[in-house]
Amino acid sequence: MATSESVSETAEFEVENIGGIDSTQVSIPPGVTVLTGKNATNRTSFLQSIMAAMGSNQATLKGDAEEGRVQLDLQSETYERTLTRAGDSVAFDGKGYLDDPEVADLFAFLLETNEARQSVARGDDLREIIMRPVDIEDIKNRIRELEEQKDNINDELATIEDRKTDIPELEQRRQQIKDQIQDKEDELEAKEAEIDESNQDVESSREEQEELEAKLDELRSTRSELESTRRQIEAQNESISSLKQERSDLEDELEDLPETLMGDHQHLETEIEQLREKRQTLNSQISDLQSLIQYNEERLEDEDYEVLETLDDTDQSESNGSPTDELLGNGDESVTCWTCGSTVERDQIEDTVERLQERRQDLVQELNDVKSDLEDLKSTQREAKQQQTQREQIERKLADIDDELESRETQLDSLKSQREELTDDVESLESDVDDLESDDFEEVLSLHKEANQLEFEIDSLESDLEDVSEEIEDIEDMLDRADNLRDERDELLEQLTDERTKIDQIEADAVEEFNEHMDAMLEILDYENLDRIWIERVEQTVREGRQKVDKTVFDLHIVRTTENGAAYEDTVEHLSESEREVTGLIFALAGYLVHDLYETVPFMLLDSLEAIDSNRIAQLVEYFEDYAEYLVVALLPEDAQALDDSVNRVTAI
C-alpha cells in the first residue's frame, strides 16, 4: 500500500465516463480544494472518480457508456482503474492507490451516503462501525498463539527448575562413581601385582601363559559387550513401553473427537453465506426505511408539503399500492401528500409513519436474530475446524509412533539376537579358559579372572560416570538457556498485553477522539443552547445465541440548556439537520484518526453539506483541513463564498 506521508505535489486526474462526466482533467494541489457549482455539475461524480482512483468500487459508470476510466498521477506514480459494464453491475479493474479501500470508504470518503457519517442520524451501532475494520478474530487467534508459546516456555522453565534440583544428587552420584573407580583401580593394581608375583613361581611355557591371557582378555571384552547389549535391550523396552502408552493415550483422545470431516461441514459455510447475505439485505432495508421515516418526520415537523419528484424505492417495495394508499387513516387536518400531490388527513400520515417505525423495529429485531444465528454458526464452524485440525495432528502423531515402534521393535529383535550370540561366545570362551586350567595355573588363573572382572567393573563405572556427567552438562545448558527463555517470555507477555488491550484501546481512543473534536467543533460553531454531545463507553449484558455476554456499547449523549440556564439531556431525534450532519462528520473524523488513515490515505472527501449554513461550513472545512493532505469539498457557489480566497477552487469539471 502507498503511504501519504509527506505528500507535497499536485495530484493529476484524468476521468472518462464516470458518473455524469464525459471527459475531464483536474489538478488537485495539497490543502483544500473546493468543487463549486450548481447542482448537476458533476461535483459528486468527480469525488467518485477520486474514490475509484484510490481503489474504491463505490463509483458509477456513465449511463450511455460501456466503459470508463480514471487515472491518477501522484508522486511519480501512475494509478489507473477501469470500469466496465457487466449486465446490471459494473466491473472494476486496474491498480488503485490503496490495496484495501474498505476503511477509507468508511471514514475518509464522506459523501452523502457514507455509513459512518449517517450512523448518528440512523441510530446505528456506533461501536460496531468503529470496530468494523478491526479483525477481531485475527486478534483472538494471535492471542491464542502467544498464549501457547508462553505456556510452552513456562513448561520448559518448570522442567528446568525440576532438573535443577537434580544437580546436587547427580554431583554426589558422580563423586561416588569416581571414588568407586579409584577403589577398583587400586584393587586392580594390587591384583596385577599378585599376578606378577605368581607368574614368577609358575613353571610353564610362555606361550601357554600368553594364550591364557589372550583368552581372558577376549572373555572380558565379550562380557563387556554383552552387558552393553543388555542395557540397550532394557532401554529399547522402556522406549517401546512409553510409546505404547503414548499411543494408547492418543487413541483415547481420538475417540473423544467427532469423526465428521470438514468436507461434511460444507453446509455450515453455505448457511453462513446465506445469513451474511440476509444481514446485508436487512441492513439495506433498515437504512432505506430509516431515511424514509426521517424524511417524513422532517416534512411533518417543518410543515413543508412541497411535492417531491421521486420517493425511495424501498418504500415502494414495502407497499402493495401507491405511497398515497400507504398514507391512510383518520384525522381532522388535511394536507397535500408530498409523494403524489393528493389531499389526505395529517393524522393519516402520522399513523403511517408510526407503522413504518414499527416495521423498522421488526426489521432491527430480525437483524439481531440473524446476527445471533450467524455468530452461533461461526462458533460451530470454528469448533469443527479446531477439532478437525486436532484429529489430523493426532493421526499424524499415531502414524509417527507406529513407524517408530516398528523401527524400535526391529532394533530390539536384532539386539536380542546379538545377546544370544554374545552369550554363546561367553560360554565358549569360559570353556576355553577352563580347558587351559591346570593345577599349576589354578592360582594365577583365579587372579586373572578377578583382574578381568575388575577391569569390566571399571569400564562399567566409567560408562556410568560419562552418563552422569553428560546429564549434568545438559542441565547446566538448560540453566544457561533459562535466562533467554525468561526474556522471551517477558516479550511474549508484553505482546499479549498489547493484543488483549488492542480492542479496548481502539474503543477508548475512538471515544476520546470524538469527544475532544466534538467539544472543539461545538465551541467553534456555537449552536444555540447545545452544550455538549459526547459518547460514553458502557458495558451491557446482551444475548448472543443461547448465551448472555458482556458487550461494550457507545452511548451518545446530548446536553442542552433551557433559557433559564437549566441543563437537560436531549435525544438525537431532536437535533437539527445541521447539528446531526456535524455530529456524523465528527464521528467519521474520529474513525479516520483512530485508524490512522492520515498515514495511508492522502484524500478526504466532503459532499452534501447544504444542511449546514455557509459560515459554519467554512469553519468546518478549516477544522478538517488539519487532518488530510488533500481535502476536497463539493459546495454550492453561495456556500463556497464563505471560504477564504486562498482556497483552491475548481469551477468546471
UniProtKB/TrEMBL annotation:
It comes from the Archaea. GO terms for molecular function: ATP hydrolysis activity. Residues 184-200, 422-435 have a biased composition (Acidic residues). Residues 178-207, 219-252, 311-333, 410-435 are annotated as: Disordered. InterPro entries: P-loop_NTPase. Residues 234-243 have a biased composition (Polar residues). Residues 219-233, 410-421 have a biased composition (Basic and acidic residues). One of its GO terms (biological process) is double-strand break repair. PANTHER family: CENTROSOMAL PROTEIN 2, SPINDLE ASSEMBLY ABNORMAL PROTEIN 4. This is AAA family ATPase. It comes from Haloarcula nitratireducens. The lineage of its organism: Archaea, Methanobacteriati, Methanobacteriota, Stenosarchaea group, Halobacteria.
